[in-house]
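Hi R.,

Here's the input for the cytidine-5'-monophosphate complex you asked about:
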Amino acid sequence: ELRGVVALDGPSGTGKSTVARRLASALGASYLDTGAMYRAVTLAVLRAGVDPADAAEVTRVSTAAELVIGTDPHQPTVELDGQDVAAEIRDQPVTLAVSAVSAVPEVRAQLVEQQRRIVARAVDAGSGIVVEGRDIGTVVVPDAGLKVYLTASAEARAERRARQDAAAGRATTVAATRADVERRDTLDATRAVSPARPAADAVEVDTTALDIAGVLGELLTLVDQRG
Ligand code: C5P
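And here is the predicted structure with cytidine-5'-monophosphate in place:
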């Protein structure tokens, strides 16, 4: 069992990213956003003009892409081929295509290998790491000391997502966001390779009625008990 490694999985709109960063910061640990990695590869696919459903072409682009991801919870960075893409990977075209790209087995194999190297480095350095995604507890770090699966009602998740989009200046409605959130969840949960699901030994935390501080408090308690 890997002490100091927290696997934080769950669908979008559960507050996962914010909570993961704050938890890492509170623990003095590193932070890894694996969704940002799938998004960056998706951006590379779109820039190359490749169809996200063409697995062979997607694999070719993914293999050639140079992806550098920072692990400082105060300033997470994502670089694609030497360029900062942190903002662009949150835009609508990437969000629409990412589930297709992340369903390609070779893309997952490449990124999981990179993710495991980053986790190993943090463990070796003794800093600990909070890793967020969809398959962290099931595939990437199955021996993580603590596995948490965040959930929330579809309504609550769509509202949070819409608020984030509005704050970032992206035009959407709650209804459109809800449709997108549900579409992406279904694709992520039903893909053949590493479908998004809780690990058998993950602690499920329902965030529907909790604010960020409330979720963070629950996670800190869990880390104290068994992290
Ligand atoms: O977490 P975020 O919403 O940014 O993730 C974007 C997409 O990346 C997800 O909808 C999913 O398709 C993919 N993903 C994944 N495995 C992970 C993290 C993200 O397949 N560990």
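One thing worth noting: The chain has a mean pLDDT of 94.

Cheers,
M.
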